[in-house]
Amino acid sequence: MHKELRVAAYAVCVRDDSVLLARWVAGDGSKRWTLPGGGMDHGEDPYDTVIREADEETGYVVEPVALLGVDSLRRRYPRRLGAVADFHGVRIVYEGRVVGGALRHETSGSTDRAAWHPLADVATLDRVSLVDAGLALWHARPPTGHLP
Q1: Nudix hydrolase domain spans which residues (predicted)?
Q2: Which of 12, 66, 100, 123 has its CA 20 to 30 A from that of 53?
Q3: What's the confidence (pLDDT) of residue 48?
Q4: Which H or E run contains 14?
């Protein structure tokens, strides 16, 4: 079994009871909302990752103002030639504040749209689990950075 580790950093940006989300386009063409952010480049600090990724996906300059916590997930999926991948994602979640830029959509990346969504409507969106995990960390602000 092939082991894959991905470390990424994301921002929970809440303003006027709305959260900033980016629409992720999966390899199969399906689309689901996610937090702005993404994978770290080798040697990159997670703080810098979240700033870069939020800008790429939303057009905003985002300042990380608090480390909310770390979320981890593990799943298996098929790979080519009958192999199976054991995927482990480590997701570092910051609270972010928009300090500049202007909302725009990414044109050549893993997302195709960015938008503010009322917090009350998030449960109705087609979204990845990271949105719920990030908002739970934002609400609870656990001192350990980990939700039970």
Answers
A1: 4-141
A2: 123
A3: 98
A4: strand 14-15
